Amino acid sequence: MPSTSLPDCAGAILAAFAARETDLTDTPVIQPAAPFLDMTGEALRRRIFMTESETGESLCLRPEFTIPVCRRHIAENAGTPKRYAYCGMVFRQAREDGADEFFQAGIEDLGTADVAAADARAIADAWGALGACLPGQRLAVTLGDQAIFEAVVRALGLPGGWQKRLIQAFGNHARLEALLETLARPQPVSGLDRRVAAFLADGDEAGLVAHIDETMQVTGYSTNASRSPEEIARRLKEKLALSVTSLDADALEALTSFLSLEVGLDAASSALAAFSEKFDLDIGAAIGAFEARIAALAAAGVEVAAITYRAAFGRPLDYYTGLVFEIAEAGARGALLAGGGRYDRLLTLLGASDHIPAVGFSLWLDRIERAREKAGGTP
Questions:
Q1: Half-sphere exposure of 358 (CA within 13 A, CB side)
Q2: pTM
Q3: Can you say how many angstroms the Cα of residue 368 is from the centroid of all Cα atoms in its chain?
């Protein structure tokens, strides 16, 4: 049974946060479930503890802090850049080696217009807080960038549906491998009704919609349908288009070559430039933003050469849009201690009327405490 008392390392972490001009905030443990179900990754959605209010509203135990902090910012401070710190318990159905409830702390930087500086500050602050708890301990920092991946996918000229699938799979190695296999060896759609197949082959969308509508009326499905005949027709057309799309050998080589990139961050810009030149891909704007972040990290005093850039690295939350990073104990079996990234679309999806840039990170306090114990005590 996990302790309900904050781990000893919380004091050092909160002191580090206070020194970084943050506002300490808290959010209710009981949260509306819809934002988490709609906007987090599948791996987290499966682990949420659900309940229901007396009025039938779906609720859940707080599985993370980012969405609640963002919702509070929209309600109270949407027009003002703010940096929020938090420290408290989150609740997720346990994996085999974990607990159902554990402590997280972190910082959410909302509304800062200088994206490169805010990204660099998030990495520096996470690294600094861990350094305050684990002085002298070697840490492994891995950085990825969803924006670079999205730029590569767009430059390859794939249909929009395939771009969306690949981008949603970023960071999920097995799923990306399966999608690349499908692109290399497309399989035609089987099992289509012959009349539906004929409408699709002829490009007769109006006829297809009328046929679907008639079928829904006859079967009575329309009374409970969540999709209109027009939407079903669009989905069928997209499914057919995706099933016959294939990448030529050069494009497939470009995508697999990109995903295999893993270099020190100090060499990453050169590696990306060489990659784009080799495959003649227009990703210069994304590389420029990437280089600005590296410069901001160096200006913040971060040892850039100590960070590993891995092109295929992402985090399993649907709301990340650019930078993603994690910090772990050094070594093949080192525990993950911190993770975060940029999520510029999230606040708009949560109801903000204006675009609000956002970046943040979380620290796993229980793992940090175990690392301190292995190192021989407290600093």
A1: 31
A2: 0.82
A3: 23
